[in-house]
Amino acid sequence: MQATYSLENTAAPNENGTIEVKSTGADLCLHFAGRWAIGSLFPPFLEIRPLLPDTIKSISFNTTHLQTWDSRFLIILNDISEYAVKNDITLIVEGLPSGVQRLMVLSSASPEKAPVKPEEKSPSFLETVGNKTAHLIEDCSEILSFTGKISLSYFRLFSGKAQFLRSDFLYFLEECGPSALPIVSLISVLVGVILAFVGAVQLQLFGAEIYIANLVGLGMTREMGAMMAAIIMAGRTGAAFAAQLGTMQVNEEIDALQTMGIDPVDFLVLPRLSALLIMMPLLALWADLLGIGGGFLIAALTLDISIVEYYNQTINAVVLRHFGVGLFKAIIFGYLVAFSGCLRGMQCGRSASAVGTAATSAVVTAIVMIVVSDAVMTVIFKILKI
Amino acid sequence: MQPQPLITVSNLTMAYGSFILQQDLNFTIRKGDIFVIMGDSGCGKSTLLRLMIGLKEPAAGSIHFHDTNFWDASEEQRNRIMRQCGILYQSSALFSSMTLAENVALPLRQHSNLAQSEIAELVSLKLRLVGLAGFDQFYPSEISGGMKKRAALARAIALDPEILFFDEPSAGLDPISASLLDNLILELRDSLKATIVLVTHDLASIFAIGSNSIFLDAESRTMIASGAPQTLLETTKNHKVKQFLTRGGTL
Question: Using CB atoms, which residue from B114, B118, B138 is nearest to A117?
Answer without folding.
Answer: B138
